[in-house]
Design a protein that fits this description.
nucleotide-binding, six-stranded parallel sheet, 19 helices, 4 domains, Methionyl-trna Synthetase, domain 2, 17% strand, alpha/beta, five-stranded antiparallel sheet, Isoleucyl-tRNA Synthetase, Domain 1, Rossmann fold
């Protein structure tokens, strides 16, 4: 890989985290895949040689359990979901160059080869560990068959991950008070021989890797805490039948590889399948993935992983260690998305509280508005709240009112007044400069890994176009100053062509339709950013409006339908699942001292706020990374605070009440959606919460990491 600005001469691979072949897709899942598709298409627009790949994650215990419940084999069960995903993604214009799955021959062979390489290089070893065992049912229990208590934070947890608490990866045998999820029986621990990957040997490498890593800040910052706490070696085998056989197993242990061993290797397998289909001259997977294969690019290609933030650890600790140990190219960037909530609450699949992918299409909506909403509604690493009201507002205001309004009024005027299109030598200087600026904004967005900025570049250009046509009023010039009118409309057509090119990553189908209305040859999907500044073809057809207004009555009907479906599911006994929010509250604060002088305490306010108003407060756990006094301010300190999803500058009045040098590494509670303010020339983006006149900083009782929401 390189760290040169895109486009580079190296082959690039953009991957998306593998969807687990175990259930329907909803719009929360789509955020990652739309984001990956948008980013891959944007690289294409820059002229970067790019392969966009993914595949279905077929293995693991949930697949085996659910297959057994349905009376089918795990392979048949997972293949059915794989085929559904392969059909669903194109419906949302998510077009992978290759979409495979982890159980196919290519991935099986590559996985076993890579594990053999790890073994031969001395990075694997056997170890006796305690594995959960159900004595009543007489069977060993893989991690996902076990539930219990997290040994680190005390929360209820799955056997492989503290999914309701600190989010840590858990090794077999770590979970306390284990129970079988199959039978509900208490489990006991028994010794078993398993294979371990010595991840701890790569701590120094991984620390340096994170210094080089590009992408979103949460993917760089979150893993540092795990390294600082000391990396634990990773058990890479499991006691079950469904999965890829451990290549060194003599058959006595019946071990398969842990699903997170073969899942990321599917990125390589899928790229290889793409190369085999198009030919290595078109795309060489080995140059992209292997070190030392290409004399021109000995460090490999540009690997960009687009994932959900819940799998950061796998992509920034385990996976790069595997790649480094086997002479593969390390990732250049990891883009970790936030979650999607629904009206401020978590999705619940068991309560049917979700907007399903097929449901969105069944309502008659076009995929491109949803792509735009998911890609541009907040930064990629931030959580996005979906509601039909917010969706309609964004569509009506930005897609219809800004982009669509400019395109339709400009092209309709052009078509009616100039049969062969307006004629001019070139766009006006200010219009040409504005198009160049938009191309620069798109290039910068790609190199900043910001899919939101890609959308902003287009809407800002359309906003300029609306202002330009309104300011020049060509309908008044067409009779008195026909040459000037023609130049104005030519400029508008040039802007429309630039929008078609630059909007293609976010709205590929609508951009192709616009391209056709402009009479441009070929396909907009093949156009690079250079085409944005080229002269329009001029063979215009009568335009139609690209985006449709969503009326209030439609939104109301959609809300009623969703509410009724959720209520029906709850009446039928839906009990929620791990997608739901859980406040994790306990009685720790009930032990507060009774000695406080109540005369010094302000009375409680009689003014109440609703739960919905409280939900609007975005209160997060943060960790102070740096603290510096502000010149000229007696009380103020400039803090650099890690909020998990990003790092922010916050000004706080702590200088007279705290030792500034002691503040770094302090956990604090931050009101993250406080309005920005400038204090002594420093922009403060948030508020650190503290109690009383002595500014007793609020913190956490347990190990909640930066970015954890307080609720």
């Amino acid at each position: 890989m390189s760290h040169d600005d895109f486009p580079t001469d190296r082959p690039a691979v953009v991957t998306c985290g593998l969807p687990y072949a175990n259930g329907d897709l909803h719009i929360g899942h789509l955020r990652t895949y739309v984001g990956g598709d948008v980013y891959s298409r944007a690289l294409d627009r820059l002229g970067q040689e790019t392969a966009f790949v993914s595949g279905s994650d077929m293995h693991g215990t949930p697949v085996a359990v659910n297959a057994e419940q349905e009376g089918v084999s795990p392979e048949d069960f997972a293949l059915d979901w794989h085929e559904r995903y392969a059909e669903t993604f194109p419906k949302f214009n998510v077009e992978f160059d290759n979409y495979g799955h982890t159980h196919d021959e290519t991935n099986t062979e590559l996985t076993q080869d890579l594990v053999r390489d790890l073994d031969e290089a001395g990075h694997l070893y056997e170890k006796e560990i305690m594995v959960a065992y159900d004595p009543v049912d007489d069977q060993y229990l893989p991690d996902r068959y076990v539930e219990g208590t997290c040994p680190y934070c005390g929360a209820h947890a799955r056997g492989d991950e503290c999914d309701e608490g600190c989010q840590r990866h858990l090794e077999p045998g770590e979970i306390e008070d284990p129970e079988s999820t199959i039978t509900g029986n208490p489990a006991e621990y028994r010794e078993r021989t398993h294979e371990f990957f010595a991840v701890s040997e790569f701590a120094d490498y991984l620390s340096e890797f994170l210094d080089r890593l590009e992408g979103t800040s949460n993917a760089r910052n979150q893993p540092r805490e795990w390294i600082e706490q000391g990396l634990q070696d990773w058990c890479i085998t499991r006691d079950m039948d469904w999965g890829i056989d451990y290549p060194g197993d003599d058959g006595e242990q019946d071990l398969v590889l842990y699903v997170w061993v073969d899942a990321p290797i599917e990125y390589i397998a899928s790229t290889k399948q793409h190369s085999e289909r198009v030919g290595s001259d078109a795309f060489d997977w080995e140059t992209a993935w292997k070190e030392g294969v290409s004399d021109e690019f000995p460090e490999g290609g540009e690997i960009v992983h687009v994932i959900g933030r819940d799998i950061i650890q796998h992509h920034t600790i385990f996976w790069p260690a595997m790649l480094e140990a086997t002479d593969h190219a390390e990732p250049r960037a990891v883009m970790a998305s936030g979650f999607v909530t629904l009206d401020g609450k978590g999705f619940s699949t068991s309560r049917d509280r979700a907007v399903w992918a097929d449901e969105y299409l069944d309502e008659g909506f076009h995929p491109d508005p949803l792509r735009y909403y998911l890609a541009t509604n907040g930064g990629f690493q931030q959580d996005v709240d979906f509601s039909w009201d917010k969706f309609a507002e964004r569509v009506n205001t930005e897609l219809v009112g800004t982009v669509g309004n400019f395109l339709y009024r400009s092209l309709l005027f052009a078509h009616r007044n100039y049969e062969d299109g307006p004629d001019a030598d070139a766009p006006s200087d200010d219009v040409a400069a504005r198009i160049d600026e938009a191309v620069e904004d798109v290039t910068a967005a790609v190199n900043d890994y910001s899919v939101r900025a890609l959308g902003d570049a287009v809407t800002d250009l359309a906003r300029f176009g609306n202002e330009y046509i309104q300011r020049n009023e060509p309908w008044k010039l067409v009779d008195e100053e026909p040459d000037e009118a023609e130049q104005v409309i030519y400029d508008c057509v040039a802007l429309a062509k630039a929008i078609a090119v630059l909007f293609e990553p976010l709205a590929p189908e609508k951009s192709e339709r616009l391209w056709d209305q402009l009479g441009e040859p070929g396909s907009v999907h093949d156009a690079t950013v250079e085409a944005a500044g080229e002269a329009p073809a001029g063979d215009l057809s009568e335009p139609t409006e690209l985006f449709e207004q969503i009326e209030d009555e439609r939104v109301e009907a959609l809300n009623e339908k969703l509410d009724a479906r959720v209520a029906e599911s709850e009446d039928d006994g839906g009990d929620g699942d791990s997608d739901d929010d859980d406040d994790g509250s306990d009685d720790a604060n009930d032990d507060a001292s009774d000695d406080a002088d109540m005369t010094d305490i302000e009375p409680l306010s009689d003014d109440r706020i609703s739960f919905d108003e409280f939900q609007e407060l975005d209160v997060r756990v943060g960790r102070i990374e740096e603290a510096d006094g502000i010149d000229g301010a007696d009380d103020l300190v400039k803090l650099t605070v890690d909020l998990g999803a990003e790092t922010r500058t916050i000004v706080a009045g702590l200088k007279q009440l705290h030792d500034v040098d002691d503040l770094p590494d302090t956990k604090v509670i931050v009101l993250a959606n406080m309005e920005k303010a400038e204090l002594f020339g420093v922009e403060s983006n948030g508020m650190v919460l503290a109690a009383g006149e002595e500014a007793d900083l609020l913190t956490t009782y347990e190990d909640a990491g930066p970015g954890t929401k307080v609720k």
